[in-house]
Amino acid sequence: MNPSKKVVLSAVQPTNSAHIGNYLGAIKNWIPYLELYDCLFFAVDLHSITVNQDPTELRENTYRSIATYMACGIDPAKATLFVQSQVPAHAELAWVLTCNSSMGELSRMTQYKDKSQRHGTHIPTGLFTYPVLMAADILLYGTHLVPVGEDQKQHLELARDLAERMNHRYPKDSAGVESPLFQIPEPMIAKVGARVMSLQDPALKMSKSDPSPGACVFLNDSDKEIEKKFKRAVTDSGTEVPAENPSPGIQNLIQIQASFLEEPFEKVHSRYIGKQYGYLKVDTASVAVEKIRPIRTEIDKILNDRDYLTKVIRKGQETAAARAEKVRNEVYKRIGFIGQ
Q: Which numeric CATH code is attached to 223-300?
């Protein structure tokens, strides 16, 4: 922890393997932060059980999540890498924040509305309170900046609202001195690659849970699987890439290639104007294969050295827990608990 640096925090759910949307929209963009900020990146396994998970798969995917961070370039010597459930303060603060939130504000969460429709009348309570746990994740570490996609901005707004509410309700520390209980977090949204869409329905964000075959490209996909998925990507009824207003499917392929190559969207687009869609699909697949292959290889290498991976996770747990417990203890004192 470096008190002179602002705190950046983000996480990915350990459900299935990470996909290129996780990599291009999140993990890849974290790497420059390592030198500039005090970084915490973790696997949110508590969030993942809002839907039923196979215990063995969840455990293995949690290990894979931390290995993926490292394989993508997140150096554990420069960032705190940990697993959410190993730091009890996340669940403890979430309960306190739940008691300071309202049914109304949680029911307005767009993701809750969307996901709850899939469950009919049997809607898991965790799906409803998920944003409060996310707020606890953020507020526990004095987070200044949260890299988020557009779809998560509403959840971050809730975290900000809860922080301000708690700061107002409990303005004084145990010594009677006025000081903010929580840092108010701000969003960080990447301009390139912030939102990778499904290859089969470009109106939807790429998702691990997408039931459509070929919709999602995972970081552990083989070269042939990656090529196959891009070649079958949905574009539109035309045949050539237009100079203006390309379809969402075409835009998605260009965006993916631009993000992998770290080039402007317009530059990549200009290379395909007037060309048939097949050229764009083949080239984007080729770029993806070359970028994903070394990551896939490194993930497997780290997973095969379980002792090393466990040491990284244990060290991250110790660091994160020490920081989180200080904040939790202060919260407990201010709301009237006897505390630790």
A: 1.10.240.10
